[in-house]
Amino acid sequence: MWYETAQTTENDFVLQLGPIVISAGVLLISIFGSLTVFPINLLVVQLFRKSKPKNLSQEDQSNQNDQKRKLVSKRAKLLAFLKQKYWFPYYVTYISWALTISANLACCFFVIMYSLDWGEQKANEWLSSLVFSTVQSVFFVQPIKVIFLAAIIALIFKTLDDEEEDEEQEQENKKAMEAQENAEMNSDEDPFRLDPVLTLDRINSALVQVPPTGQDLDQVRLKRDREKRSKALIKEVVIYVVFLFLISYIAWGHNDLNVYRMNDHLYAMFDASDVNDGNSFWSWTENTIIPNLYSMRDYRGDPTTKRERKFTVDGYSYRVGPSRLRQLRIPPEKCKVAIEMAKSTQICNIAYSMFSQEEGTFEPGWLSPNGNYTPQSKLESAFTYQTAFDLAGLPYWGYYTTYSGGGYIADMGITEGQAMSMMNQLKDSIWLDIYTRMIALEFTTYNPNVNLFSYILYTIEFPPIGGATPFPKVSSIQIYSGVGGDGALLLGAEIVYIFFMIYFIGAMVMQVKANGAKAYLAQPWNVCEVVIIIASIIALAMYIIKELLLATILDDLNANPEEYTNYMLLAEYMNIWNYVLGIIVFLATIKFLRILRFNKHIDELASTMKFLKIEIFQFSDRKSVV
């Protein structure tokens, strides 16, 4: 009925919670739908609940009759009627069933009519709104309705109980006074009759309640203690559920479901599975890398525009700056040939190591320069070693070993012609030879459709055993996490999370002052709490550093758009930050089990883990060694 009553525009608020996308229109429709069905649902439920069973026990019937006899005022009778377990006779149940069946048949009729009128696409969109309305009803509307009704009924019952107690107390006082007067009139020798002061004291003493016994006080204290613990547990559950939701939403909001799909797409686009030696490497560069990285013609074969050439061949990923090739190599003949084979060959080269790599400066063809030599062209720069500090690089793992972040850099340029020219010059200058141990293709793309930066590091390793082994690595990261309709919500969640951390830190400090640091840390759950706080502080500091690092990289890119900007540091930094967020979510989820300790199964699981802690530690130690 309410579907598409409001027009949706491009500027409407859109909230994305993982795979669930919620717009303002869908939210409004679900609220209207819930309000529409709320009255009939409430009526049917109350009719079922307040109708007498078919075979009501005599004891329940007699209790209700006794309560009716005790009533004095009309207001008390009305309140007592509301307090009764059953309001209506048994035949009202049939009316409830009739209303339920009629409502369902009416809904089915309108659903069929609307679906025939809308068509397939609009009907599917309506179905998604219906599903969200159902979820909202189960997790939000129904709990709120239960709390609201419980509060009203509790207020009514409390008022009724107070009035009944007042009326009963007044009746008892009247009866006591009448009995006292009758006793005084019938007793001529009663000394209290002659003294009105004594008579009043006697009446008051008769009305004084008997003080509770020690056993009654113990029961009251126990009940009060249980109420305090229940309130504290409910408060702890509510606070920690909100906290767990916040950290989970923050961790989810800084990631994207499209990361895996983006990585898989780039792996397939620049597939290097056929590279097995130096010749196949150059073929892969010429036939796969350059055509896919530089889009020179569209799908019709027509030349692309200047703007389109800045994208990869698929037309979706924007190429951020040029690409480059980076080589790491070893010094020649650093090992000795076996004496038995010395007459056959004298060439022996070691495996790669960051501590024994080649770091010299050469002329094209790997020739030793004469005197002071300064590179004058991009080709000559490809034979000059640059440190990891110069390139803003990091060491990283390959298939065989760990490689340095420095190397010999060959800039491939920003057009297909520049890339083909550089590749041919490198081939002619024998840039790849038997001393090469690794060549890495590095470039960065940005896909605005899914808001993902992708740092591609395609490593081709040349081990001393011969051949070539591709070891690709694609890191897609969401740098601008605040883009879209949920950006403000994500920022708000981060601010609220900071306040939660302040609250937890304050609570921890108070407990440490009250019990001492040693006693506080003796509890494993407190240690978990401390680790969560420390990890949260680290994550906050890393977030600030990430923003500063991103600003530095973007300034460098804007200042030198035709030079390579290394995103390796930012990509690895974002991965580490995501690991920290994952640790916080994991520990918060584990700590949430403590809040569920009143559950029997959770308590049994915790007891089992505590009993087997030594065996579990031993197994974990052996597993880590293996």
Task: Annotate the secondary structure layout.
Elements: E1 14-17, E2 20-23, H1 24-50, H2 58-70, H3 74-83, H4 92-118, H5 120-186, H6 191-194, H7 196-207, H8 214-253, H9 258-269, H10 278-293, E3 318-319, E4 323-329, H11 378-381, E5 385-386, H12 388-391, E6 396-397, E7 402-403, E8 407-413, H13 416-428, E9 436-447, E10 452-461, E11 469-477, H14 487-515, H15 517-521, H16 524-559, H17 568-595, H18 600-611, H19 613-625
Task: Describe it.
It is a single chain. Strands 3, 4, 5, 8, 9, 10 and 11 form a seven-stranded antiparallel β-sheet that branches. The chain has a two-stranded antiparallel ribbon with strand order 1-2. The chain has 626 residues and is of the alpha+beta class. The model is unreliable at 6-11, 68-73 and 189-194 (pLDDT under 50). Helices cover 59% and strands 10% of the residues. A hairpin with a 2-residue loop joins strand 1 and strand 2.
Gross geometry: elongated
What's the SSE pattern?
A: EEHHHHHHHHHHEEHEHEEEHEEEHHHHHH
Structural class: alpha+beta
Mean pLDDT: 76
Number of strands: 11
Number of helices: 19
Largest sheet: 7 strands, antiparallel
Low-confidence segments, given as residue ranges, are 6-11, 68-73, 189-194
What is the CA–CA distance across the termini?
63 Å
Give me the oligomer status. Answer: single chain
- Indicate the percent of residues in helices: 55-70%
User: If you compute it from the alpha carbons, what radius of gyration comes out, rounded to the nearest whole angstrom?
Assistant: 40 Å
Determine the strand fraction and express it as a percent band. 5-15%
